[in-house]
């Protein structure tokens, strides 16, 4: 529906509340995401006679000189004793909205506050940059942007939110003492001003500039050591503060800026003194110092344009009528200094723009007395408004309605329901004794209240409303209040999962008391309200709130993985029992025939395996959490008594024995089955305190768990040495799981073994038929497409061992630290000398997954490259495509005279490849099994001298390994092909020689990144690897010359999308 309209009813009649735009509500059942941000409008009809004159005049009065006036409060008491917001009674709002506490803003007050700064800055070149940290509500940001405001940011997500709100990036300033490289890259790309805070900050800014190929405008944040005379927690400009650089280091930074003048452009200086400042002469003291620094810096040839004096102007939190500095007072203090140097002034208000525009509205739960202390207990708390608890800050508190007749005033502490003694909103306040359920507001709650709110004690984040012209626009939203499919939310990333709960409930309200209920029109919703509750959970913890037993409201639960992918949906109607289960990972050591034990014990002694087990099952990303290990009773009894329970983990023992009583022991739980254990761990409190769940044995439990749908990963110690066992488990289902990581073979106590991590990539081993546009598609055509796209559920120590990270880390290192060098193409490179990577060919094939890889990446440019290169070296008589005596010719005809690509060279020269295969078969310990493409006498005949010059082969334990030396390696285009091609050659030779593939070692001389590849490679670095594919070859082929393309199949290759990179020619 369109925006809400006032319901027609006689003046002075009872008010009727109507939710319009109801079509924006989620349909039933719960919608599939990504969802859209929903705006709802609540229209409140108020007759003119209902607005008391005092409140009406206060709301209507507009200060003719806003800049000269102090910040006035938009909340005021009317002659009837009720509290009003711009003429609307707050108590009426409380009756209309779905719940309390809630934040209530005045949109008009936000406008007035900004206009005060705008008028104060007339005659100056200026930027007003709103400090988003003060309040990050999206609608407020969009409103300020529409007024002409810029933005000040202190994190990457604040930057993304500012962009989402439409702020001009060139009017944004990126502050902070710990800015991340990936966030600086975004800032550099968008042209945001960046404040330099430290040496490493400058280094990261330079790196970001090189990544995007743009100069970054920067300001030096100089710490002036001026005492702002405020609470030490909000003082930022003294010499002991963590922010900024001291003047004695200034010259070092200026020299560094000169050194990196192609990456950064020094355009100004910045200082920030603190917050809640009440004396403008403090700003002048700092500005004088900054102007002196500007003079010194300009004397060294820098063209400085900007002076940023920060923000921090205080407000009258006490409502005492104190005369505090206004925006005009602040600007006039520095106006002459700014004009004398022809500078653009940047001001960063946050608190003074937004604090006095809002109240936190609460309901009184009750009144109590303990000893000599009186308490008013409200439904709001430190979770919604933490300033009093954090800083001991004072904020004015009052009731929204007149006191009851004969009620006495007393001294109260106003406290909330959070289970902390520090949970107070105000202490020693003189207030009338309130009745249960009346409203109580905490004033000046617009800044550093909602933006610092938490979900402590699982309190729901309060809704936010704002008023304008006696009506209310309601914005029910999560913390950022942006669409779930926006770039801002998608990049909250790093392995997070979000869980949203949608609850529809009937309002506890007697509608007959407020008038006749009009028939509902289509799209309207009466009697109901809807609320969103979002919890951000790090890692792979699957959060479910409780067990949903005997729910009294109709509820829908929808879990999201990584903000976008719908992986689980469940619904209930009426009273229902939900049985959510935790997913888990299996940790097991087994022989090649999957034997795991003999006579109830491990048949082998491998201290390294025990150490690996401990690391995997104990390590957490959140130090406040721990993992759980699930085991059968016999496994528990096999653990030496002195080691029971396994320390640092919650031990869950599965047993149906009534005589097995260990439940009273610390860190131990007993469950009757695996399913009941997983259900228990999915419920509170374990869903919040347990990060990962591992199933560790024994045989019966593992047979049930190993390939079950709830198993996310399998950590297998693969025992290659044969042992006699009497307990076995099924093999890993390779149609469902793929190797993520496999260690190189280890030897301990004469036992050869390796560690292998398998990850689930499919939902089940039986692939159903797929449909496309209504047509059935055979599952074989989609067998390489993974159902699981991200694998952050793995322990970090396993996740980061994926071999593709060796390549990605090399790329990242060269982009960040590589030396600038020229090259034959004139493109320019970042280079590093002497690099090595190593790949395990035993279980998977190293074809990169962070971008689509195929021959097409090279074919498109190869023809042009060959023609231009042949012309440059004088080989103009050659036809297109004739490279000369390069790789294949040297491998099979080394030393023969080359004429052209059509000549017959049979029997000519030395066949290196055949000689190597013969040595591998007949003399595998030979140290001269070298395949060389470097023939100095033929270099002048080649279009390009060989980059991958020679390879050496090595045989050990029935496995063939290869090390290739490459003199020059293009990390973006060439190296992925080089890794794959020599790995393939190793596998082919191994099969011909009746060996198994071993290792491929890639040694590089000049490893480089072309300047034109930096940005696409930076895009590739943002991708997360997927499991490598498995190479299958025709086992009947035993002749190296007999292979054809149909003899090869890659199973499970599901890379990210193609990333365009132009070949440097």
Architecture (CATH level 2) name of the domain at 107-352: Alpha-Beta Barrel
Radius of gyration, CA atoms, in whole angstroms: 35 Å
Q: Which fold name is given in CATH as the topology of the domain at 107-352?
A: TIM Barrel
Beginning-to-end CA distance, first to last residue: 59 Å
Please state the structural category: alpha/beta
CATH class of the domain at 107-352: Alpha Beta
The averaged pLDDT comes out at 78
Q: Determine the number of helices (DSSP H or I, runs of at least 4 residues).
A: 25
**Would you identify the CATH H-level superfamily of the domain at 107-352?**
Alanine racemase
Largest sheet: 11 strands, mixed
Low-confidence stretches are 1-51, 56-70, 233-237, 470-578, 766-782, 855-876
Shape: flat
Q: Which range does the strand content fall in?
A: 25-35%
Helix content: 10-25%
GO molecular function, one term: thymidylate synthase activity
Domain DHFR: 583-760
GO biological process, one term: dTMP biosynthetic process
GO cellular component, one term: chloroplast
